[in-house]
Design a protein that fits this description.
Largest sheet: 7 strands, mixed
CATH architecture: Alpha-Beta Complex
Number of strands: 9
Shape: globular
Strand content: 5-15%
Distance between the termini: 53 Å
Helix content: 25-40%
Radius of gyration: 19 Å
Oligomer: single chain
Low-confidence stretches: 4-35, 248-254
Structural class: alpha/beta
CATH class: Alpha Beta
Number of helices: 9
Length: about 250
């Protein structure tokens, strides 16, 4: 079943309120979960031919496959988050896009073609064209260790502010930026994005249990840190290929 087609009665979700123009309130369901507002998530994904170029020395000929795998593990976690009702992937990578659709996300081409922040704003526009009252989040795609509960914790914390963000593991960048219904996302991803988002008036959140949501991957050192946290199955599969490639060849039978 596609994410957009999930039942409105699924536990842990508020449904129908957005369509009626009512902002959902926080409550508890019978199992004790705290019920959050309903969210849409936009994720930009570079074409794997150019994505994660700084991992070339680590991954070699598997770099493009590794980039796709990390993005797919990230998207799978987002789709599985109990507060997320729609996921829009903005990408021109048709091959990767098919995998994202199979995971339950909607894939749209990067029509602006003007960099990361323009792609994010376009993704949010697509989300809001379907559900104007959704809370929205922009999320980095290079989070191969992401867990759904980490994203849930961040969205819970973010729901108390019109705009909010989570800094990356370095404390310099941003992995998640959120906006309430009717509030412009105003993304400023890139170098020193934490400072830029603070300057724009967004509230910085720091909930517990979100280390896998902070660990974006640009370098081999970042990837090793993600491996310690525990990467998703697709990333782990490609890493196994890389490890085998690095093993010295054994004696040949003659």
């Amino acid at each position: 079943m596609r994410l957009a087609d999930r039942s409105v009665e699924e536990p842990g979700r508020i449904d129908g309120d957005e369509a009626a123009g009512v902002t959902p309130r926080t409550a508890c369901d019978p199992r004790g979960w705290r019920v959050s507002r309903s969210w849409g998530v936009a994720v930009p994904v570079k074409h794997s031919d150019i994505g994660k170029s700084r991992l070339q020395g680590f991954a070699g000929r598997f770099r493009a496959e590794l980039a796709r795998a990390m993005a797919a593990d990230c998207v799978a976690a987002v789709v599985s988050c109990r507060f997320v009702q729609r996921v829009v992937i903005v990408t021109d990578d048709e091959s990767a896009g098919q995998q994202f659709v199979a995971l339950g996300a909607q894939v749209v081409a990067d029509l602006p073609g003007n960099g990361l922040n323009a792609a994010l704003e376009f993704g949010v526009e697509v989300l809001r064209s379907h559900r104007p009252k959704l809370w929205v989040a922009a999320l980095s795609a290079d989070l191969p260790a992401l867990r759904p509960d980490a994203l849930s914790a961040a969205l819970e914390a973010a729901s108390s502010a019109p705009r909010a963000f989570l800094a990356d593991a370095s404390g310099v960048g941003t992995t998640v930026l959120t906006a309430a219904p009717g509030v412009a996302l105003d993304p400023a991803f890139g170098e020193s994005s934490r400072s830029a988002h603070l300057a724009s008036g967004a509230t910085e959140i720091n909930p517990p249990g979100v280390s896998t949501l902070r660990r974006d991957v640009d370098t081999a050192a970042d990837l090793r840190d993600a491996i310690r946290l525990g990467v998703g199955p697709r990333t782990a599969h490609v890493l196994t290929k890389i490890e085998r490639l690095e093993q010295p060849a054994g004696p040949r039978d003659v």
